[in-house]
Write a structure and sequence with these properties.
The protein has 313 residues and is of the alpha/beta class. It contains 12 helices and 9 strands. It is globular, with a radius of gyration of 19 Å. The structure holds phosphoric acid mono(formamide)ester (CP) and norvaline. The site of phosphoric acid mono(formamide)ester has 8 residues, from helix 2. Belongs to the aspartate/ornithine carbamoyltransferase superfamily. OTCase family.
């Protein structure tokens, strides 16, 4: 990680495979310290601002808890309350907040919004989910898979569902970074954005990951070590919910689909989930599911991001 200039965390792809590995190592170490009750106040006296333009349970609480465990504090800023929601510019908001806080986490719609914050702020900007990327979640997913499988390189991940969303995009980049193979299956017209697939394939060339984008859930699930899905209707797409319900029916993660995976596959979902839509209850609540480890790991993975970006050098 460059130490000369402030660094943001907007996508997985802007970090090298070595840097992603470094973040995972930091997360493993701090998780162990936390479990043993050993204080690790790397961000003592530091403050993280957190702007939310969309709802959140996990992201809000895990970032706030992470800052407290690191000896700092976090401030929740709803766009309903701050002047940004009344039209104050992103540039002015970024410049003002840079004078108050040491880092800023943002959950918003267009990815260009976090990029504009990053360009105008003097402090690290952390992506807490945009329409096209959810990198903090995927770092937690990689940590979870590593904990359950003991490795990442060479595993096969299967992603079934909406390919053109934040989770699928960040998983493509995350799998590529870690040398994990990834096969996606989405209805026609809901494939991942090709520029993100191309970027992931470039990373994959270096790491040996094989990326396959398709429309056949069975093909994607065959011999998978990890099965992942996400909601069919993401935040901001509510008007399309009914149409999506029909188009995605054949892309449910259920017992039949999982029978094509390895016997010891694990199931991940970033949550919130809709039982009997994208995943059946017997899978998400069954023995292969690691969704609550995954949710817990948001804290540990994000502490690594916060430490690496915000610790005084
Ligand atoms: N997975 C996730 O980001 O959850 P929240 O929307 O609750 O933050
Ligand atoms: N794809 C989902 C993820 C929620 C954490 C959404 O954007 O709503």
């Amino acid at each position: 990680i460059k130490e000369t200039k402030k660094k943001d965390f907007l996508t997985i792809a802007e970090y090298s495979p070595e840097e992603i590995q470094h973040l995972l190592n930091e997360a493993v170490q701090m998780k162990a310290l936390q479990k043993k009750g050993i204080p690790h106040p790397y961000l003592s006296g530091k403050v993280l601002g957190m702007i939310f333009e969309k709802s959140s349970t996990r992201t809000r609480v895990s970032f706030e808890v992470g800052m407290i465990q690191l000896g700092g504090q976090a401030i929740f800023l709803s766009n309903k309350d701050i002047q940004l929601g009344r039209g104050e510019t992103i540039a002015d908001t970024a410049k003002v907040l840079s004078r108050y806080v040491d880092g800023l986490m943002i959950r918003t719609f267009g990815h260009n919004i976090v990029e504009e914050f990053a360009e105008n702020a003097d402090i690290p900007i952390i992506n807490g989910l945009t329409d096209t990327h959810h990198p903090a979640q995927v770092l937690a997913d990689l940590l979870t898979i590593y904990e359950h499988k003991g490795k990442l390189k060479g595993l096969k991940m299967c992603y079934v569902g909406d390919g053109n969303n934040n989770m699928c995009h960040s998983l493509l980049e995350g799998a590529a970074s870690c040398g994990m193979h990834i096969s996606t299956a989405s209805p026609e017209g809901f494939e991942p954005l090709s520029r993100i697939v191309q970027g992931a394939k470039q990373i994959a060339e270096k790491t040996g990951s094989v990326i396959s984008i398709g429309n056949d859930p069975i093909e994607a699930a065959k011999d998978a070590d990890v099965i992942v899905t996400d909601v069919w209707t993401s935040m901001g797409q509510e008007a399309e919910a009914e149409e999506r319900l029909n188009k995605f029916k054949a892309y449910q993660v259920n017992e039949e689909l999982c029978s094509f995976a390895k016997d010891d596959f694990i199931f991940l979902h970033c949550l919130p989930a809709h039982r009997e839509e994208e995943v059946t209850a017997n899978i998400i609540d069954g023995p292969h599911s690691v969704v609550f480890d995954e949710a817990e790991n948001r804290v540990h993975a994000q502490k690594a991001i916060l430490k690496v970006l915000m610790e005084s050098k």
